[in-house]
């Protein structure tokens, strides 16, 4: 029953203040040259006739936020694409997490053994560097391939 009582935001009824905000955004788009006078008139008419948020949002879907130039929109899209390209693939993140957890467990166990045993102890956690180096090489290779594919 809880899900039934929750209404989707887009289906909620819009208030007059919501319609006025959309009309202001449309006016800003007209002033910036993004809409022709005819498009502006049609959209403002539709905004004041809108009953739900969905009907209002449809009027703004193809418009950037007011005050953004085309160059700023393009720069933001390019920056987001660069951020996405730098992001490590999920599989590699999982592998790095597993490696780090195993390295920490090895170091903690080694530390506990070293504290409780007298004399020299073979430093077995150093062997965790081998899979770490292999994982680092794979990560660098994957990122290099992804970088080449972007070009």
TrEMBL record:
UniProt key word Transmembrane helix: yes
Ubl conjugation found in the keyword field: no
Keywords from the UniProt entry: Membrane, Transmembrane, Transmembrane helix
Source organism, top-level taxon: Bacteria
TM spans (from-to): 92-114, 126-145
Domain DUF1707: 12-64
Cross-referenced PANTHER family: DUF1707 DOMAIN-CONTAINING PROTEIN, MEMBRANE PROTEIN-RELATED
Protein name: DUF1707 domain-containing protein
């Amino acid at each position: 029953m809880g899900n039934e009582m929750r209404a989707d935001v887009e289906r909620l009824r819009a208030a007059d203040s919501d319609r006025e905000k959309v009309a202001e955004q449309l006016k800003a788009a007209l002033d910036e040259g993004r809409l022709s006078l005819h498009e502006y008139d049609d959209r403002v008419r539709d905004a004041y006739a809108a009953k739900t948020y969905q009907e209002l949002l449809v009027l703004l879907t193809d418009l950037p936020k007011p005050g953004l130039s085309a160059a700023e929109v393009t720069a933001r899209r390019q920056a987001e694409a660069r951020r996405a390209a730098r992001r490590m693939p999920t599989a590699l993140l999982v592998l790095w997490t597993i490696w780090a957890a195993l390295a920490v467990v090895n170091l903690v166990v080694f530390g506990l053994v070293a504290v409780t045993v007298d004399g020299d102890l073979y430093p077995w956690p150093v062997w965790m560097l081998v899979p770490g180096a292999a994982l680092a090489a794979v990560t660098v290779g994957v990122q290099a391939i992804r970088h080449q594919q972007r070009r």
